[in-house]
């Protein structure tokens, strides 16, 4: 079986095609194709309130390319999910209709709670018996989840992300609201470690020289972010080999991760390098096997 997930974020659109394998009682999602394109819908939406015609036309071409890729790989099923930028855009309904008419693909615009629930499908596989604060920072929104004994007990989505923060599209009231939610849940649930997901924390983890399942410490995140912040945009691209769309949002994103860890008084974080696209693949598999309880693994 092959499944495909398309994640339409505020910064980039991702398409992943994976084969589903069964091995020693596990369901394994083996990546066979992965394409990421920096569409940057958030730059339009968080400034003007809508997505420009130029980007709409490019977006339809991109989805058409993904559809051809899905067809070539004989994919059994796929799902397209759009998050914060499309949730906010004044012309989202028009875009969805144009995509439907042009290439016969259906986009689901999901709310923050649904986004967190989908990510939850894969995150639980990386947790132990500690109590965790899961921090998922996207371009337009941040999702917080609390896990106790590998069960999610609380969840909250905030319209705050790396692109919004970069452009100052946030407020003291929003930051205070996030802080109060985390502090209250941290005291209530005795949190001991963070889980970080999102492209920016993945890159910070890599730049800090971390690999595998070992945690990164808050001090290491702070030191890595300070090193990046001291460099010009061109140095980040040439010396650190960051994509331009990563180089300009990695510091705003790091400020959200670090603030959340400080509010929760957490010193360490695991970074499983998975996200919404992986959760979408799990959700698709569950459609075929709704009664099956399974352990999953992700292979690059």
UniProtKB/TrEMBL annotation:
Q: What is this protein called?
A: Ppx/GppA phosphatase family protein
- Judging by the UniProt lineage, the source's domain of life is Bacteria
The record places domain Ppx/GppA phosphatase N-terminal at: 29-283
Q: What is the species of this protein?
A: Pontibacter silvestris
Q: Name one Pfam family in it.
A: Ppx-GppA
Xref: CDD domains: ASKHA_NBD_PPX_GppA
Q: Which residues form a coiled coil?
A: none
Matching entries from SUPFAM superfamilies are given as: Actin-like ATPase domain
